[in-house]
Amino acid sequence: MTASTGTTLVIGATGTTGSRTAARLVAAGHHVKAASRRATPLPGTEPVRFDWYDPATFSDALTGADRVSLVPPPGDPDPAAVMLPFLRQARAAGVHRAVLLSSSAIPSGGPAVGAVHQALPDLFDQWAVLRPSWFMQNFMGTHAHALSIRDEGVILTATGSGRVGFVDADDIAAVAVHALTDDLAPNTDLVLTGPEALRHDDIAAIVTQVTGRPVVHRNLTYEALCDRLAAAIPLEFATMLADMDRAIAEGAEDRTTDTVRRLTGRPPNSFRTVVERELASGA
Length: 283
Fold this sequence. Notes:
Elements: E1 7-11, H1 16-27, E2 31-36, E3 46-49, H2 58-62, E4 67-70, H3 80-92, E5 97-101, H4 114-123, E6 126-132, H5 144-152, E7 154-157, E8 163-164, H6 169-181, E9 189-192, E10 198-199, H7 200-211, E11 216-219, H8 222-230, H9 235-249, H10 259-264, H11 271-278
Parallel strand pairs: 1-2, 1-4, 2-3, 4-5, 5-6, 6-9, 7-11
Antiparallel strand pairs: 8-10
């Protein structure tokens, strides 16, 4: 059942999940303030400028909002430093429900956004933390895996034969809308997966079958992946990403959950379905 909502502030509204969440909220008749660094106009929304690192943008973004969809600043090893002051200001401004995008790999009190997860229940009576597994969209668009697939026909990881319950960003957004607008907030964390746990070898095989372009998974050592990532991003963040690959290799993400079906009433999309939707056209 959906509550009659005032205004939802969607932070990161031009991103992978934020754009989908904003579009679904608009389609359901909700008023959306679409927050991004350039106040990019999105259909049916009220665009507003927002930058985690510029507190002067907080007040305008929060004006009139009674709930907020939170995407942490990307690549920041300590997002709590900028997010918690904003969340305290949001509560004071009248926001009563907050839905945070975290990760299946990061529990409450864990590194990075885990500290924000831990603080959220003390800040808001109505809350949820979405903890999706790895995005299916990582193999499409401008993600590093998508680029290496297009440029070299290869997926490079240190995951070995570890499996991941990859999840469609559309399904994450569908759950986010329920968490933001249902009469009763989840008031818990929600681990989101697709319908099956797949190896990166399986991912490569499905992309090959659907697109007709040969793609293989090449397994790197932990050290080699660290070096490769650190050439492009800060070492601390590169190490964290490599650690996540090592955890996958050890079985940490080999699971599926019924969360998408439970909250949306329909099964999550399969990886093949998403590849056919987003890549089969040659995009």
